[in-house]
Amino acid sequence: xxxxxxxxxxxxxxxxxxxxxxxxxxxxxxxxxxxxxxxxxxxxxxxxxxxxxxxxxxxxxxxxxxxxxxxxxxxxxxxxxxxxxxxxxxxxxxxxxxxxxxxxxxxxxxxxxxxxxxxxxxxxxxxxxxxxxxxxxxxxxxxxxxxxxxxxxxxxxxxxxxxxxxxxxxxxxxxxxxxxxxxxxxxxxxxxxxxxxxxxxxxxxxxxxxxxxxxxxxxxxxxxxxxxxxxxxxxxxxxxxxxxxxxxxxxxxxxxxxxxxxxxxxxxxxxxxxxxxxxxxxxxxxxxxxxxxx
Length: 294
Known about the structure:
With 294 residues, this protein is α/β, with parallel strands linked by helices. It is built from eight helices and nine strands. The strands form two sheets. The protein has a six-stranded mixed sheet. The protein has a three-stranded parallel sheet with strand order 3-4-5, with helices on both faces.
């Protein structure tokens, strides 16, 4: 499908921070995943999960797909399922931003909203129950190796090449953990001394796209040995840095991107030298109905 929009998935820009960090010997770069056609890093995983499932014969055009999502994966799946003419139902908490819901529906997906009090865990439970009827197929981004392999095949090599093999630290928010697992696997193969830093919210914080999972819901693809260090950020820190990215760097991202950037800046201030790369997961325009930019 070289002539479709899917050829635009990946190969996103890497841009240097010029204002939010100013420390001699330390460079911070942001990988702008909002430049993917579906607007987020999740385009990579969604494309690889659907394409691989079709190639293996796990699914075909008669398959009914169902998936729980906090937003970005759902948008990516809706877009790519539409291109492959697949039926998909996406399940998410009812407090998700209206931009996300409307975008999924624009791509042709059915969207089911679950009680916001139960969070994404409630959405996952609903999808599991529907799949148990035998009428649905779940790609299961939380336990699907094609999720992290997308980043092993694309995100990791892009960062390695675009930094001229000089990256010293990689910072990523952790949700499904696919991005950090795949990128870590690739970068560690190239240079075992590269430090992989995961970002989680503090216990009292809610940051869309970043989770500290209860043990029962911990993504099966997550391997803690592939993360050298975990930094926690508060909701306020993530919000403030998201706004700073827009105002000071011209980078319009979402709250999880601000959370990762806050951790990356903290890391940079600890270092005497290094080249740090942080993932900007998506675009800020899908948060305009929230309080983030008010």
